[in-house]
Amino acid sequence: MVEIRPSHGMTHSEELLREYLLSRDIVFQYEQPVPGKSQRPDFQVEHGGATIWLEVKESKAPVQRPTTAFDPLLSIVEKIDQGRKKFKEFKSCCCGLVIHSCESIFRSAHIDHVVAAAFGQNTFYPLRADRVEDTPRRFRFSGSSKLNRDSNTTISSIILLQHWEVKELWVDVRNELLDRQSRGERIMPGADMQLLAERQDEPVRITHPNTTRCVVLKNPFAQVPFPNNVFDGPFDQRWGLSGDVYTLQWMGSGLEKLRQRPKLVPYDYL
């Protein structure tokens, strides 16, 4: 394992990725000069006989807290543009843009927002308002996009670097609603929030605390496909295009086990 400078010189998101790579025994170099190129991506990963370049972008809290409606896609679009510039000399390489956000809800890297910014500003996934769904989200896209057949094909994937845990109260509430629905009850919008409010005084129950995981959003238009055997930890996920639907394609063994519990963890919380 090679590191170019001490970890204390890294940003929070770079340190988080470093710890993840170390935990997975993935060989990497940090900010290594690349002969013949002026740009220097944050991480060079060697895994499975392949070289992968990773650029890490951390979303900071806005200088001024928004007081009116705001567009959550703008900060993600900005990060994609920054990644495009970093990878402009790596068009024949496998490149991953790593995005992390934990400081502010106004800079959330929620999967709904990231795929909308990347693949189509107008996202659609068929969900009924009067039902509780327990299936992976299924996206269809239209409108403006940053990653398409003609733009940013050097970015092989966007990787969401996340702090992750299971909030067991949320799991209990969703399972209760699923049980009610199976007995024929119609579940109205907002029922989960109502139940959470009613049980807000219950002790906080967290499992798998302080977990770091990666959610890989594969770019179906990439010149070089992103490999499947890099971010394959027990709590990782991989999303991609299946037919005309962008959806979850794989999840790690830890998440599979959470789906097999007596009180299973719904897909929305995996």
Describe this structure in words.
With 270 residues, the protein is of the alpha/beta class. The chain has one domain (7-165, 209-252). It is 24% helix and 27% strand. The chain has 6 helices and 10 strands; from the N terminus they run αβββαβαβββααβββα. The protein has a 10-stranded mixed sheet with strand order 1-2-3-4-7-8-9-10-6-5, sandwiched between helices. Helix 2 links the parallel strand 3 (50-58) and strand 4. Helix 2 (73-86) packs across helix 3 and helix 4 crosses helix 5. The longest helix is centred in the middle third of the chain and has 15 residues, at 168-182. It is globular and about 65 Å long. Residues 1-6 have low confidence and may be disordered.
Q: How much is the radius of gyration in Å?
A: 20 Å
N-to-C terminal Cα separation, in Å? Answer: 31 Å
Overall pLDDT level: 88
| Percent helix range | 10-25%
The backbone outline, from C-alpha atoms, is globular
* Secondary-structure class: alpha/beta
Largest beta sheet: strand ordering: 1-2-3-4-7-8-9-10-6-5
Number of domains: 1
The residue ranges in which pLDDT falls below 50 over 5 or more consecutive positions are 1-6
**What is the string of SSEs from the N terminus onward?**
HEEEHEHEEEHHEEEH
Sheet of most strands = 10 strands, mixed
Tell me the number of helical segments per DSSP (H or I, 4 or more residues long). Answer: 6
Q: How much of the residues is beta strand, in percent?
A: 25-35%
